[in-house]
Amino acid sequence: MSVFGDGLDTAVQKAFTRPAPKSAGVRMRYLVKQLGGTKAVAQMLRISQRTVERYIKDQIKKPRPDLAERLEREVKARWQPQIRGKAREKAATTGGIVIDTRARMGYTAPIGSTDQDRIRHLTVALPPRYAARLFDAQEDGATEQQLKEIVAEALKEVYFQDGGRRAGSLEEVRFTDIEHLEFDL
User: Which are the contacts of 4, defined by CB distance < 8 A and separation ≥ 6?
Assistant: First the structure.
């Protein structure tokens, strides 16, 4: 499970104007409409085409836990694409993104400074350029490590260096042992 990727998706989903479908039958019908047929939905969810048809007709109402999770994830990934795009665009151009995290952070600095890692709880508003980098990297299929490096660089500039007003000789920020991570637009 991707902490950073899922966190970005959850932040964007908060912008939805209507709730995503809840029942299994409605979710299946939505996916069939989006993908253009029961065969494509069956292959995507790794179930039989006949099972998809049964869900559509409400002959089966309660999916297995693993299928329910896949079904919810696939519906939310396709739900309100225009709203999702507008939320990302706004965050990347004007709004920025807020990160709330509790993690072990430290930094590499010149000799004589206190650079020992420690657990910190931060809520920091990141500028729009970092939101744009995060969303672009996510769309390009960036790994969890690459997203983590972008966030560490943003925290270095915004939190540790305070936009260039302090800690100018700071070289690198270490961002490890993440206990909590949440994004908000």
Answer: 134, 138, 144, 147, 148, 151, 181
Residue whose structure tokens are 């690198």? 172
Q: How do residues 83-142 score in pLDDT, each as one tens digit? A: 999 999 999 999 899 999 999 887 776 665 555 788 889 999 999 999 999 999 999 999
Exposed / middle / buried, residue 48 (Cβ in 10 Å: 0-12, 13-18, 19+): exposed
In three-state secondary structure terms, 4 is helix
State how beta strands 118-126 and 97-108 pair: antiparallel
Classify burial at 98, counting beta carbons within 10 Å of its beta carbon; exposed 0-12, middle 13-18, buried 19 or more.
middle
Per the structure block, which two tokens stand in for 151? 């966030």
Cβ atoms 147, 138 nearer than 8 A: yes
Range among 13-22, 27-36, 107-116, 170-179 rated most confident: 27-36
